[in-house]
Task: inverse folding
């Protein structure tokens, strides 16, 4: 056993991780969510995508500057530790390890299972395979949950036992998922202009008017946060990236631009294949079916499943390293155990097992609260919580908004501490990133309401637990030193 990770990834793999982790399920099902929130107001939806992308890019460029200066074992934790302080860095790492990474990984595992089953049952209608749909139109049931757990275990095995294979999977799934997006972006626009559907969708008034445009825009931008999130996870491999101080900023910047362009072109292309009402009710699949036919339209579900699997793989990569990034600093629980790196796989296996267990926990919560309706008879997975139910919240968006809130002190201290850089890097970019992060927090409060309150209780409990475990470890270390 040793405590060092080898540099095994190149620039192309890093770019694929940024693009592959970000472009996943979000671009497919959150596009439908944004249409639902805006009631088919296409221009407002485009503005939401642009605002969300601009906020992401401002944060990316700011962290790209940090990546040229700080380097250790987990990018965002390194930046928080170097700018705000070791204690803040620890809590940032603890949050990422226990809430952020595993909650999103579990959600992506379910989405991978959902689209896989939809594809199989549509392609092979005589198969003895049941899909259970709840009243919100969400796929649930034992088959879906079993496949979800299977995907989690497979992703864990690949990342923990063969990290190089995990990198290849990330690169290949990135290429595969861009195929339907690119085809729809080009063919959808051409077909939509030829039929007049694209123009009709953009000039048509909203199907209904619910709330002010400002509140609707806040909710729509909040929904884009899930689609745009994930790029920060690529910074977790900075200690495993060849020439990371040069390649990581390139990967973050190039990957971010690719993501924004892809989302906008796809969103516009989809509107050329179906009416706003059809897209709101059935999602992007109806646009593919209308343009390419039933068979190819159903193949979209396979591409979406592959896309989700690729995103889940990238998130699991971060899960496997989450507790390790904390333990490598001598903090958190059982540092000696979680900081070990296997000499054969060059992976922190103990940390990886803990990451898998946390994914299982958040997967159980996600299923019971948001899918099975144990807390409420209404689904909250669309991003809108319709009623105040104790400890009922959306674990796919709220952890993402939390990370934006945690960025703010990092950006402020970066402005205070950095020297010898241009005005653009020193002031303009960080200030834009701060404004964007504050916007995301306000959008979350407006769109999620009381769900934020219940989530914050859970968040506070986890943070207090992390503080207590860290204090216990530090006391043990001091006692051993004596």
Result:
């Amino acid at each position: 056993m040793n405590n060092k990770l080898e540099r095994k990834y190149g620039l192309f793999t890093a770019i694929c991780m940024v693009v592959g982790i970000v472009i996943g399920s979000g671009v497919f099902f959150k596009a439908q969510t944004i249409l639902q929130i805006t009631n088919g107001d296409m221009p407002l939806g485009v503005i939401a995508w642009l605002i969300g992308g601009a906020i992401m890019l401002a944060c990316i460029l700011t962290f790209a500057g940090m990546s040229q200066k700080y380097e250790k074992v987990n990018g965002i934790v390194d930046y928080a530790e170097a700018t705000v302080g070791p204690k803040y860095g620890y809590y940032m790492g603890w949050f990422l390890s226990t809430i952020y990474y595993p909650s999103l990984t579990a959600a992506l595992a379910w989405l991978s299972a959902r689209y896989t089953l939809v594809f199989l049952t549509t392609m092979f209608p005589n198969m003895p395979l049941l899909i259970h749909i709840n009243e919100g139109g969400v796929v649930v049931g034992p088959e879906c949950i079993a496949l979800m757990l299977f995907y989690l275990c497979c992703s864990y095995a690949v990342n923990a036992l063969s990290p190089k294979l995990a990198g290849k999977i990330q690169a290949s799934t990135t290429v595969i998922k861009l195929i339907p997006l690119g085809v729809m972006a080009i063919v959808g626009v051409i077909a939509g202009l030829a039929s007049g559907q694209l123009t009709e969708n953009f000039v048509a008034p909203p199907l209904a008017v619910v709330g002010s445009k400002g509140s609707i825009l806040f909710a729509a931008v909040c929904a884009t946060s899930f689609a745009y999130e994930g790029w920060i996870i690529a910074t977790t491999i900075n200690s495993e990236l060849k020439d990371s101080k040069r390649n990581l900023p390139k990967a973050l910047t190039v990957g971010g631009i690719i993501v924004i362009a892809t989302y906008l072109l796809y969103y516009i292309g989809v509107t050329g294949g179906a009416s706003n009402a059809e897209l709101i009710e059935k999602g992007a699949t109806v646009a593919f079916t209308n343009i390419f036919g039933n068979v190819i339209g159903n193949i979209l579900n396979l591409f979406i499943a592959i896309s989700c699997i690729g995103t889940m793989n990238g998130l699991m990569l971060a899960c496997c390293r989450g507790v390790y990034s904390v333990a490598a600093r001598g903090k958190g629980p059982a540092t000696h155990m979680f900081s070990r790196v296997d000499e054969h796989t060059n992976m922190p296996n103990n940390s990886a097992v803990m990451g898998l267990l946390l994914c299982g926990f958040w997967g159980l919560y996600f299923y019971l609260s948001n899918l099975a309706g144990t807390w409420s008879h209404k689904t909250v997975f669309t991003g809108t919580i319709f009623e105040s139910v104790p400890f009922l919240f959306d674990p796919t968006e709220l952890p993402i908004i939390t990370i934006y809130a945690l960025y703010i002190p990092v950006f402020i201290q970066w402005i205070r501490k950095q020297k010898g850089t241009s005005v653009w890097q020193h002031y303009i970019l960080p200030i834009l990133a701060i404004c964007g992060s504050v916007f995301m927090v306000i959008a979350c409060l407006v769109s999620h309401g009381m769900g934020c309150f219940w989530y914050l209780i859970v968040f506070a409990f986890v943070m207090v637990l992390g503080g207590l475990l860290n204090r216990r470890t530090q006391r043990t270390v001091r006692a051993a030193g004596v």
User: Anything to note?
Assistant: The two ends are 27 Å apart (CA to CA). The first strand starts at residue 132 and ends at 133.
